[in-house]
Amino acid sequence: MDRHYRIITYIIIGVAIVFLLQLFKIQVLDSSYKKRADDNALREITDHPARGLVYDRNDSLLVYNDAAYDLMVVPCEVRAFDTTDLCLILDISKEELMKRIEKARAYSKLKPSLVAQQMSKANYGYLQEKMYKFPGFFVQNRTLRHYPKPIAAHILGYVGEVEQKVLEEDEYYQLGDYIGISGIEKAYEQELRGTKGKRKVLVDVHNREMGSYKDGAEDEISIPGLSLWSTIDLQLQEYGEKLMENKRGSIVAIEPATGEILCIVSTPSYDPNLLVGSARSKNYAALNRDSILKPLFNRALMAMYPPGSTFKLANGLIALQEEVITPSTQYPCGGGYNMGSHIVKCHVHANYPDLIGAIATSCNAYFCRAYYNVLSNRKKYKTIQESYQAWKNYINALGFGVRFDSDLPYELKGIIPSVEFFDKRYRKSWNGNSVVSMGIGQGEAAVTPIQMANFVAIIANRGFYYKPHVIKAIGTKDSLNERYSEKIDCGFDKRHFDALIAGMENAVLNGTARVAQIPGIKVLGKTGTAQNPHGKDHSVFVCIAPKDEPKIVVFCLVENGGFGAAVAAPIASLITEFYLNRTVKRKDLEQRIISISIK
């Protein structure tokens, strides 16, 4: 009897030990069971930081944040729920709702994913009252970008939902997060986005939050993004967009001493508030479908035009540097350039201009001959290929045919053809006359507005520039952006700029740009007419002011605007007057330009 009792006792003790060991394993060694229990009572919520604010150069607010609310789902926590009621609140179909849940499940069954973004306060309040009906769903606070002025859309850019490729490359982002897509929002995403936080909250059986877990001891506070101070002058930007209403083209204004962009206008444009909130996708699709106006297309950075007569300044500078001409060199015009079968017509002016006179009158013959002689200099270069490559190197040094890698995304480099391009076109049998049209900014060359504005800054600085940029300080107004502080020397003798400046001054006083005169301010300018094979030529103008201490350079191009003096010169002149005087006295000219509509 005693033996059987001991055996039974040992069995009971053994079973108890097994249960105790298993209990110890479950409660102490294996955290998965605790996690499952916690998941039924706890919810970890990501605290998304507010994106940094954006100011103009005078501390006016360009971008700020509004409160917004996202509906999130944790797929593994979803139970049977009233799909009809939730669809009514979100204003989507049942099919769309289930599609979003399946997308979330495919991403992760355990991690929260976005179901509906940027809900209104009204929808948020209504949803909160019914959250007990939707197990596995919860609302997360977010911020919504807001633009107090409906301007500068191409500069500021917009934010949108992060793409799968980014999710795979950057662990900071989760499905449903927002990221800068274009403009400043994209270029300074790292600075603007801040650092995420997290908090644990207790949740009851009805899916309602009941307060912080452990009084927030395990929470991590989010850190807001850094604010940015831009180089943009808000009032100047607004004025530039007003002048360009009902026109297509761009304005780029730069402070030459720093490379800071004062305004950058691309029209047609759009209200940046259209790409905010739940209507963003629908509005983006509508803007993107507009193949006629192309409001999403940033002409200032991406449109490539024949540079027109403003390019004559670059070719004059190169001819001086190559010692092919001096400021006093004269070439006959007689109505244009004629060599063999190649004819380039010119308008009526003095027959034998020097360089200064040729700039003032925009003589085609002069710059065709100067360009031809640069490419035909066999004392220095043995072949056309060598001389053309030398010319191309100069042009690249002046910022054409290259990217600045500035802080504005999607910048294109334009077109300055290579030696190989012309060798292939002409089967290696070509000379300066074959490509002479590029001497006056026509032919195969194409440049962007920001490149032309930067070139004019080089003239104002007599040979150097700072990369054009739109952000001057990060974090605080005194924390200057050091990315664009390098002074870039273009390699030209400083003395060669004297003739260009004198010619531009004469163009405004007595030449093709008289309409650009501003009372009390010495303005330097150059008109241009860029040929357009698809319709009326483009109106082009560049200017510098004041002459002796340049504070602003402006490039303006109006598509189908005709001669440079017709539309572009008045606009650039008004921009200059407004920036320097903070007002415009030439109201008649202003009203005439505003009233012009060019389809």
Structural overview:
With 599 residues, the chain is α+β, with helices and mostly antiparallel strands. It is 35% helix and 19% strand. It is built from 21 helices and 20 strands. Strands 2, 3, 4, 5, 10 and 16 form a six-stranded mixed sheet that branches. It is elongated. About 1% of the residues have low confidence.
Brief synopsis:
This protein has about 600 residues and is an alpha+beta fold. It has 21 helices and 20 strands.
Write the layout of secondary structure elements.
Elements: H1 2-29, H2 31-41, E1 42-47, E2 54-55, E3 61-73, H3 83-90, H4 94-107, E4 113-119, H5 121-128, E5 137-146, H6 153-156, E6 159-161, H7 164-169, E7 178-180, H8 183-187, H9 189-192, E8 197-203, E9 209-212, E10 228-230, H10 234-243, E11 249-255, E12 260-267, H11 280-289, H12 299-302, H13 312-321, E13 336-339, E14 342-345, H14 355-361, H15 364-375, H16 384-397, H17 419-426, H18 449-461, E15 464-465, E16 471-474, E17 488-489, H19 497-509, E18 524-530, E19 538-545, E20 552-558, H20 568-581, H21 587-595
Parallel strand pairs: 2-10
Antiparallel strand pairs: 1-8, 2-3, 3-4, 3-5, 6-7, 8-9, 10-16, 11-12, 11-20, 13-14, 15-17, 18-19, 19-20
Helix pairs in contact: 1-2, 10-20, 13-15, 14-19
